Automatic annotation (TrEMBL):
The lineage of its organism: Bacteria, Pseudomonadati, Thermodesulfobacteriota, Desulfuromonadia, Geobacterales. This is Uncharacterized protein. It comes from Geomonas limicola.
Amino acid sequence: MSNNKQEMTFKYVFTYDYSPTYVNGAHGGISPRGELVMNFYLERQPLPNSISHQITPTGTIGPETEVEPEDLGRSLVRHVTTGVVLNYQTARELHYWLGEQLKQMEAIQQAREEMAAEQGKSQATH
């Protein structure tokens, strides 16, 4: 503490396997204990288990003849990477924090759009 002010310093400790993960969705809800459960996932098209191709008379790979599974084109995969469980107070604090981060992201996006519009105007006059 400095100058008799009440203050606290938080030190962040990362595990050796800390690895930020890209997610583009979440699924979850309220648990029987009243906690918020969020399971984060990456939604993408699935990869086939196997693809068979015809071999052309010249020995090169020709068109596909079979894809496993057959419904590959009608499927999506939600690869669940991690999940979190939050009590009410932590969920409220995270909600507030996310709101503040979104305000900053929106300000940055607006500044980028204004800059692009200005560049468009200056290019149109030259």
